[in-house]
DNA sequence: ATAAAAATTTAGGCAAAACTAAAAATATAT
DNA sequence: ATATATTTTTAGTTTTGCCTAAATTTTTAT
């Protein structure tokens, strides 16, 4: 599989997690930063290789083969991210672009040895699950902080948006994976939240709360 | 720089280490496994970018800029090889192809952090020197075992050929980097050597001896 | 010195992956 | 329901890196 084919597969995979029907040409184009016409070309190629099912104008869906291939790319991406953060001391907002390249290195032996070296992690530095060598994913109970009720407490376990600017905002506010967060109040006008983190109160917008995953603890 | 451009640069670099004049089109074609006409095309592109100096029919030479770029690729290749062997437990005959891919990952930060993680190694698993971040290479005193005199003793410090088959032969004979080797006799008919390694005597052909680097110790 | 051999370059093409512009299909809105 | 808007596909190009075949230059051998 080429570098480009892998990127398309990955894009289709990520999009299909939220769209239960076929993934649209335009959505893919947005994700891989190309034009719809280029996507149509590539989709045909992927369909020939039986990685996706494609019907003109109806969007695409991954086949079992395509799904597994996509998961293996995601596995590589996330394992490399763990390596960069845990072993090379990268910050969590710096790893995405490098992992984007590393994920295309073709060696099963490499990735399985890396997995072992890292101690078979199940989540990447942003709290996203790492598929195992068979494509199995451990689902963790979690919900968006914006869905918490006032009075509830959670442990931050992931981010929905892993853009550098969002992650740096969290660093600045000293919110990290593992932080205990209590919902003190919710403003009904804009859905902003007053939360308590490390004994300090702060206000976060609904947009922030909608991009933070937490696990309820009480 | 593209993947392909990097491979050509690296090939020219390796060839220019043994050829003090311009590197020939055919030699490059052999190294990158392409045809002479393809090499001519690529050379023109590299010349436009001022990475090589090129005169029709006269071969190519690296410019300072090209030399530094080539050394950085070699640096990456060899650091990744160290990583694979030291950290991921690959055998020294398994690392080349994977490193061949890893060397193209574009991130200075990555490679410098990897360098630090590995403890700033100066040699790769085959005894080849690793250029530092400025392109400086530590030269180690060494010579081919085939050039040793009878009675001399050396420590094996590198291999000239790092093909899997040669490395596996050495493994089988229990010759590794660091092995102490004494020349017991040299057969004048075929230049084969009787050597002593770890108290055991064995005979190695001239071809083997011509691909093993050692440092004289007495 | 010159003919033959080898190496190199040029010319013309191909495949992958992208693009623009135009055509076709589908979705939306009044 | 039908006109309009949006989405998707098709058709035709471009660029990169490779190829083959032919032409040219350099090297080698007599």
TrEMBL record, chains A, B:
Organism of origin: Flavobacterium enshiense DK69
UniProtKB keywords: Activator, Cytoplasm, DNA-binding, Manganese, Repressor, Transcription, Transcription regulation
Physiological role: In the presence of manganese, represses expression of mntH and mntS. Up-regulates expression of mntP.
InterPro entries linked: DtxR_MntR_Metal-Reg, Fe-transptr_FeoA-like, Fe_dep_repressor, Fe_dep_repressor_sf, FeoA_core_dom, HTH_DTXR, Iron_dep_repressor, WH-like_DNA-bd_sf
Chief location bin: cytoplasm
Keyword Transcription: yes
Species lineage: Bacteria, Pseudomonadati, Bacteroidota, Flavobacteriia, Flavobacteriales
Every HTH dtxR-type domain range: 1-63
Assembly and interaction partners: Homodimer.
Name of the protein: Transcriptional regulator MntR
UniProt GO cellular component terms: cytoplasm
Hydrolase found in the keyword field: no
Recorded GO MF terms: DNA binding; DNA-binding transcription factor activity; protein dimerization activity; transition metal ion binding
Subcellular location: Cytoplasm
Family under the similarity heading: Belongs to the DtxR/MntR family.
A matching Pfam family: Fe_dep_repr_C
């Amino acid at each position: 599989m080429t570098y480009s084919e892998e990127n398309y597969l990955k894009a289709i995979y990520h999009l299909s997690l939220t769209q239960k029907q076929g993934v649209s040409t335009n959505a893919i184009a947005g994700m891989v930063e190309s034009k719809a016409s280029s996507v149509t070309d590539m989709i045909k190629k992927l369909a020939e290789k039986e990685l996706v099912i494609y019907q003109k104008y109806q969007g695409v869906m991954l086949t079992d083969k395509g799904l597994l291939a996509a998961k293996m790319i995601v596995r590589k991406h996330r394992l490399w991210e763990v390596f960069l953060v845990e072993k090379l001391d990268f910050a969590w907002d710096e790893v995405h672009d490098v992992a984007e390249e590393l994920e295309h290195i073709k060696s099963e032996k490499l990735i399985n040895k890396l997995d072992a070296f890292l101690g078979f992690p199940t989540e990447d530095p942003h709290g996203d699950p790492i598929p195992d060598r068979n494509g199995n994913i451990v689902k963790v109970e979690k919900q968006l902080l914006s869905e918490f009720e006032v009075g509830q407490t959670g442990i931050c376990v992931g981010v929905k948006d892993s853009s550098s600017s969002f992650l740096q905002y969290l660093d600045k506010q000293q919110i990290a994976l593992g932080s205990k967060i209590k919902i003190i109040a919710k403003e009904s006008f804009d859905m902003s939240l007053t939360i308590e983190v490390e004994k300090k109160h702060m206000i976060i917008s609904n947009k922030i709360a909608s991009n933070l995953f937490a696990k309820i603890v009480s």
